[in-house]
């Protein structure tokens, strides 16, 4: 049984044109690092929060989310409390937003250990020292007496990881944990998270907008667009041969650090907002391989292509052409013979 | 420094410190560089390295303690008195900030914002201004619909392109961009990066591009300057910097970029070694 399992999770807010999450299924096993990659508004944070039973106010929910066997959709307060205090913890983007600036680090770390863990003050402090050491902070006794403002962002993020560990969770949910930090600090935080996953067998769900970071640190990747999983596979497989035009578009949008430098091919347009909806594939109006009459009819379902799963009406066809990253541009004569393949010119398609 | 009116930007011996307790914090220490016509310089570093302070000094938002900034051989006024001096400085250097939502007036349409700049800086008739607004917005890929919209009706990428159009309206000698693409979604970031390389090709404006992202700097710039704790630790053509980084901090920065087969443990160790040496000697 996976540690974390989503089955067709559906979250919708009344008055919005499309659901925030539309049939999201994913899983994280014990000791596995999994990334959920998406742009702003894709629903990746809502997905992560659902693993703690946190849903937007007034949202209609459907489907299932299980953490270590406990169902969270429609769960009662006792179940939610049990999951939040001992099974799953979350780390957020901005460590300063999640800690009381006028209390010492020691107070922050020992509060849960004493209130929930039932430890005495001395026992809680001993455990807090252990945890600060475990996340790689150099001088735990001194840090226990420090205030948040006396620490750098990277150090404070490690305090937040230590705080998440006080619950002794089996699952760590990390929502853009390094986005607010310097690249060199990012490596330290990811090294700490990986050590917890590898040595202590924690399941890790990394929420990020950075496909390269996901591939560098996780075993498997899910790519999300407009509330749906559009592609999933192993990190190496997905990066080497993306099957969904959106995944290929994301990879083609970031300039490379080495190799030849060619003009970037941006994904035209902007990600779909909650006020917009599409009868067919949500990515269709930004996709250079869109085929009217096919892509705008019904949303594509996730289906096996190669070693992964892809939700694209033309996935098999594009794979036969070499994949969306290298398939000839629809504007070239070979493909343009089928008039339906020609990409519509938009003002942002530049 | 020899004054060269042929160079869009010359910076020499720039220093800025802030009072902090007994010993002031030196944010930028002895920074010198020059920008050749049509050149683009990337300033790379981590938070606290002094790169944003540098950008702010270049546009006159901070006054340097020491050093000189020359735009086409003319010193950038440290203090401006009167309308003419302010306009002259705005004409010399323009800036695009990280967050276009905060840097555009939320109550003015994009078209009105650009028009306001033209009204301040030129003597065009209202109809000529309208034509120029359309031309400037078209250059950054925005049409009439976006021109009539308030900033909040536009996406992040469109807002950032509007901010670039506003800066270009002044026809500045130098354009400073401070983390101008960092807040954008990856797929949208590429649209703005291509726009910047088009601007370089078409206008010959000198660019100073402040960023923490080496890959983005490689795409936009031909030279890169690496700052570490306020000091320049390396300044090379981008290709050379990436192929043979000389300073340990530059090597750390390169190793830190996530990729397949990445080893964050080794990078963390490398970072501790660098912090232990404590001297940013070049």
List the helices and strands and how they pair.
The complex is a heterodimer of chains A (350) and B (282).
Chain A: E1 4-12, E2 21-28, E3 33-37, H1 44-50, E4 60-67, E5 70-71, H2 77-86, E6 88-91, H3 105-115, H4 121-134, H5 140-145, H6 153-165, E7 171-175, H7 183-200, E8 203-208, H8 211-217, E9 220-225, E10 228-234, H9 235-240, H10 245-253, E11 303-305, E12 308-310, H11 315-320, H12 333-336
Parallel strand pairs in A: 3-8, 3-9, 6-7, 7-8
Antiparallel strand pairs in A: 1-2, 1-4, 4-5, 9-10, 10-12, 11-12
Helix pairs in contact in A: 3-4, 4-6, 6-7
Chain B: E1 9-18, E2 25-35, E3 40-44, H1 51-58, E4 66-71, E5 74-75, H2 82-92, E6 93-96, H3 100-103, H4 110-121, H5 126-139, H6 144-147, H7 156-169, E7 174-178, H8 186-203, E8 206-211, H9 214-220, E9 223-228, E10 231-237, H10 238-243, H11 248-256, H12 264-277
Parallel strand pairs in B: 3-8, 3-9, 6-7, 7-8
Antiparallel strand pairs in B: 1-2, 1-4, 4-5, 9-10
Helix pairs in contact in B: 4-5, 4-7, 5-7, 7-8, 11-12
Name the assembly state. Answer: heterodimer
CATH superfamily of chain B: P-loop containing nucleotide triphosphate hydrolases
- Overall helicity of chain B: 40-55%
Highest-level CATH class of chain B: Alpha Beta
* CATH 2nd-level architecture of chain B: 3-Layer(aba) Sandwich
Shape of chain A: globular
Q: Any idea of the CATH class of the largest domain in chain A?
A: Alpha Beta
Order of helices and strands of chain A: EEEHEEHEHHHHEHEHEEHHEEHH
Care to describe what's here?
The complex is a heterodimer of chains A (350) and B (282). Chain A is α/β, with parallel strands linked by helices and 350 residues long. Chain A folds into two domains: 1-87 and 167-288 and 295-314, Rossmann fold, CATH 3.40.50.300; 99-166. Chain A has twelve helices and twelve strands. Chain A has an eight-stranded mixed beta sheet with strand order 6-7-8-3-9-10-12-11, with helices on both faces. In chain A, strands 2-1-4-5 form a four-stranded antiparallel beta sheet, covered by helices on one side. The longest helix of chain A is centred in the middle third of the chain and has 18 residues, at 183-200. Chain B is α/β, with parallel strands linked by helices and 282 residues long. Chain B has one domain (9-277): Rossmann fold, CATH 3.40.50.300. Chain B is built from twelve helices and ten strands. Chain B is globular, with a radius of gyration of 20 Å. Classes of the chains: A alpha/beta (350), B alpha/beta (282). Chains A and B meet through helix 7, helix 8, helix 9 and helix 10 of A and helix 7, helix 8, helix 9, helix 11 and helix 12 of B.
